[in-house]
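To close the chapter, one final illustration. This time we ask the reader to focus less on the individual chains and more on the assembly as a whole: which components sit near each other, and how the overall shape emerges from the parts.
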Amino acid sequence: MNLFSEKKTAISKAYWVIAIIVVAAVGVSLVMRDESGSEQEVPDIVDYNFHIRPILSDRCFKCHGPDANKREAGLRLDTEEGAFAALKDNPRKHVIIPGDPLNSALYARLVSSDTSELMPPPSSNLALTKTEIEIIRKWIEQGAKYKKHWSFIAPQRPEVPKVDKDLNPRNPIDNFVFAKMEEVGLDPNPETSREALLKRVSMDITGLPPTLEQQDKFLQDKSADAYEKIVDELLSSKHYGEKMAIQWMDVARYADSHGYQDDGYRTMWPWRDWVIHAFNSNYSFAQFLTWQLAGDLLPNPTKEQQLATGFNRNHKITQEGGVIDEEYRIEYVTDRTNTVGKAFMAITLECSKCHDHKYDPVSQKEYYNMFAFFDKVPEKGLVGDIGLASPGDPPNMRISSADISSMMHYINKKDTADVVVMIMKDSADIRPTRILRRGNYDQPADTVEMATPAAILPFSTSKYPKNRLGLAQWMLDPANPLTARVFVNRIWNEIFGRGLVKTVGDFGMQGELPSHPELLDWLSVEFRESGWDIKKLIRMIVTSTTYRQSITRSEKKLQQDPDNKYYSYFPRMRLTAELQRDLLLSASGIINPEIGGPSVKPYQPKGVWESTTSGRGELARYIQDKGDKLYRRGLYNFIKRTAPPPALLIMDASTRDQCEVTRSRTNTPLQALVLMNDPQLLEAARVLAQRSMNMNLPENTILERVFRLVVCRKPTDKELKMLDQYYQQQKARFEKEKGKASAFLKSGEFEQISTKDIAGTAALMQVNQMLFNLDETTVK
Amino acid sequence: MENQEKEFRLNVTRRHFLTSAGLGIGSAALGTMLFKDQLFGSDQQSAIPLGLAQFAPKAKRIIYLFQNGAPSQLETFDYKPLLNKMHGEELPASIRKGQRLTGMTANQEKFPLVGSSFGFSQHGQSGAWVSELFPNMASVVDDLCIIKTMNTEAINHDPALTFFQTGAQQGNRPSMGAWMSYGLGSENANLPSYTVLLSRGRGNGQGVYSKLWTNGFLDSLHQGVVFSSGEDPVLYLNNPEGHDRQSRRDMLDQLAQFNAEAFENVGDPEINARIQQYEMSYRMQSAVPELTDLSKESDNTIKLYGPDCLVPGTYAANCLLARKLSESGVRFVQLYHQGWDTHGNLANDMRMQAEDVDRASAGLIKDLKQRGLLDETLVIWGGEFGRTNYCQGKIDPVNYGRDHHPKCFSIWMAGGGVKPGIVYGETDEFGYNIVKDPVSVHDFHATVLNLMGINHEQLTYRHLGRRYRLTDIAGEVVNGIIA
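The assembled structure is written out below.
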């Protein structure tokens, strides 16, 4: 499929000639390259963390790094001792002699013309560029100073830089961002229009588009703090928690089914209701983290605290008859370990399950130290096959209607039956945790204790209890270099589409370096010292001048800041799958604003479940819901892991197979098909048309109204004219073909609203459908 | 935003041109697609290389007939008369060698050997043994390369299938087809490069799941697109009621006008990419129904696949559709056919399964051959593991069952650069262990990639700090089967 064709844009013939040559040339070698370094310059002062380690880590550490078993020639380049040591086979020579590149074996091997000497070996396809070699030479010349990896040094609050007052910095975020822009010769964009700002901040905080009333109110409010008032209003909306939950559900790999092939039903939705509640109540991140990691280990834990631990039971569970119990139990513990590593630490712990980490200082032993925290659960690999499937395997907890009316009012349970959720529990002496050779469940080796990777922050047993609660305390320790940074960065990434550390899930050696390290540290310290106040963090970001910039990209910015690394304009980001759905339900007024409860099954093409199932279990067939359940927000869509909702999946939603901290944003023709033909969208277009027609307003007023509802701004005169032309064209068509008009208006199960002018209504529905498909509509 | 390639590609669209040399395969594939779209429908097509393979590919396209549930090697291609001789006798410990067993038979007191209840005979020039259940496959045996020594690490369906399709038992890695799409791009601008067809037999079934055709961490452009036998051959393909081609055209024109207006104001080149997406979806709307319409196939073709091929959703119909998709340039067509999980009632279930797949599988080979496409199309037939030589449960005089067996099983390949008419590898007389030329799943992947012109160690994608490949950290090309 060609997704990047540019037929309609002018492409010179010369381009094709160049492209052919380039493509033909790369056809020879299929090596992947990290493109970020392609335009790299040699810096005046070479910094180990920012310039050297990325090169060494990517090209050298695989054989000369932390993994002792794979280390070649006994040489390691990731530590000073290793790199400055004498060569094993020639003690008179040294790998690196600080200040003397020409006598350093490292440099000699990089530039050798003898392919048997050259490093990395040509067969590895990891060759360094000339610029990279020059950077290494200069670094050695400047003394070859090693530094600890940036993300393993606890953040300190840096000084806020001074910037030009004319740029209107509203809070320190702006000072940091503008100072960086000044450094590279860029200016921030001017503030965007009020309408655009309102849509942006609404989508960011509640995930719902502003209503006409909100639009009018904001446009008319001339007070100096009109915007701040809107922000506070949105932050106190009950829909804020829903918006925040979407991302957390990806991180926590939440789903409504168990996930392996027979894929039975599970009832973890009360956990999801809790997440919404936690965000809405603005629980501190410290509490949010502690309860999820260790709510069951708090003194006299409440049911709520135990419910929160469902986080660590959201992983997949097999129901395939005949599996080997221990193989799968180990799989679950592995999933928890990896998820916690990725979610809270942004460290790819999983790489050290089978061997020492190749890039990061996490040994295989340390992996199993972490593993031990999650290994004490009284659970089985297989509780029962699909025939005996239960919605909640032990350890679990029953939640009754009485619980809900007394304490757990945030759970939206409709019937009187108890609901069973899986929770965490420890049986301290249940089993010793062992290192597994090559990660294999049936090859246990030495016993290990609970601990954390020492390079990040040693686990002090005098300070923290030796259990998950201790792990939570370790994470929240001010000396922990990762926790605050990782969370702040993820929030930033959600809002700006690009993290201050671009690799949101990897703060290790192979991850990208922060674009604004001082800002990241300032925000992290501020966040922690604010009492881990999430709403406060978001408020600070969205009230900054940086956030309020327009989206316009000048030619200069396209050249100098194409990836928006300097945040010199606001990015146009496509709404996530769930929010696209929410937008059309909301704009058409058919949305059901209910919060929480069992997941729902809206329209879905026939056969998606049926064609994949073995026929066993209660989720073999998709039974679509009826009535107002069809109009719930996207986050309540039932996720059957083996056959996730196709419209969501096509729009890049997570399969919830494993922890995901970011979604990709792709552009495929299947997405266009969904937006054109999904009955949910057609139904929204239809109801909006019928209701609008019955308002008895002039045609132009109606067109302006639907445009404002869907696009969230007033149309320009030109746009209104285009809209009217299209409306008249379609009206004329439907007048000729009344049958088609009626057929078109049949869309969806929402009750029909009769209108006088069938052709006009169908034409308006057509206009609405087009508006829902506008590129501008689908971006925030 | 963890993968630089994706970002990079977007940047390419943003900038409208390829700025630097040293581009990875992603951009190579991108290049292919650009060419193809620019040139699609023009007669210059042949002037540009299609796939940007690393070395001359032997195969351009793959059709993978996955037999989901694991057909028994002992009732298909691995003839073991000793089992009939020793019928009912205990599996010797010296043969089992402590092999782990699934929870379904691990607690059995006895492991009585059971011989095939179906006759075997030799066929073709190669003299390969084929069970009487598969007369049509036997008739094309000289086109087949039968591998008797496949083996896997997994012992249960879900991990074994996942392993075969993604190179890892767990996790959400890109599937084979996604890697091919990523590495080689598409040959047809109006169709996805990776499509999936699903069918279910009458035997004991094991479900499939979308993870098997996932793009994993690759761009979702490489996700397998399911073609179904329902009203919409591709999800969301059909226009709603009251819409026709003209009104859809009108809408797209209107949309393009509005979007162009936005581009003028904002200058975001991604808007143009969106316009193109709509255009391609519009082309797909006519290209796909033309393809899935099997009514114009000749009687001779119908005969090859059998009358079932006119019944949408059957294995036979999917085989015919697979040929049409492949012929139209779809890089990887993946079929799944359920029903081979013969824990019990094997004799009966195998017969039904064979009836459903034998003729159409062989028909596909014959059809490709008569169209001159077999040479450039690699066809693969096989399941996720083998089955035990001992009986699951008690031996019944007329029936028996076989549990999962990972240590050896048979698959076949045909066309696309594999040696025709050979049998590769040897298993022991008990059909339990490999004695010569084992082929692991990683080897299988390495070989398939090699046939497509790709070095499996160099088709990589950097994700979360690590370069991943389909073959993980293993895999040797099986040169013995390459023509």
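The radius of gyration of chain A is 29 Å. Residues 1-39 of chain A have pLDDT under 50 and may be disordered. With these observations in hand, you are ready for the problems at the end of the chapter.
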